[in-house]
Amino acid sequence: LRAEHGGHGCVTLDETCNDAMTGSLPHFTEEDIQQINAIFADFLRKAEADLVLLTAEGGFLVTQFGNADRLDTMTLGALSSNSFEANKAIAGLIGEPTFSSTYQAGANFSVYVQSIDGYNLMVVIFPVKTGVGAIRYYAQTARDELTRVFDRARQRSPGEGLDLALMNATESTHIFKRQ
Question: Are 116 and 89 in contact (CB under 8 A)?
Answer without folding.
Answer: no
